[in-house]
Amino acid sequence: MHIIEKAAQLIKQFKGDNYEFGLDVLSKAGSMLHPLGQKALLIANPSDWLQPHVYQVADSLREAGIEIIAGQAFPGSKPNSPLEDVYRLETYILHHQPDCLVVMGAGSQIDAVKGANVLACLGLQSAEIETYFGVNKVTEMLE
After folding, report:
1. In this structure, is the dihedral angle defined by the CA atoms of residues 56, 60, 73 and 23, taken in order, positive or negative?
2. C-alpha 1, offset from chain centre
3. 129-143 confidence digits (pLDDT tens)
């Protein structure tokens, strides 16, 4: 078995139908997110190289009948997810009340949005992000 086929098999075994990969995966974003709601907050790294891909995902969301809040992508995080970016993203979530979050970028973008989402959902328990750091902290608070 070719290494790419083996990798695909391992991903399918691990994630089942909850994970998409491969060529043209961005055009599937709308159909994948449709069950999560009709209003998405799109957050993306504003780099020029990413913009064609952001447009492709945005088109896929619109084709699936998902409204993109403000009709555009909001700026994500600087490298290493500065706290001010996490709190700014939390404000977007609280203000716009999206059904789902779509983040495009690398680790810092994803980490910042995850942190912002935790704050938006659990912020009444603690508005300080550090409260949620550590193994199973968020899970414990959700319970």
Report:
1. negative
2. 33
3. 878 788 888 888 888
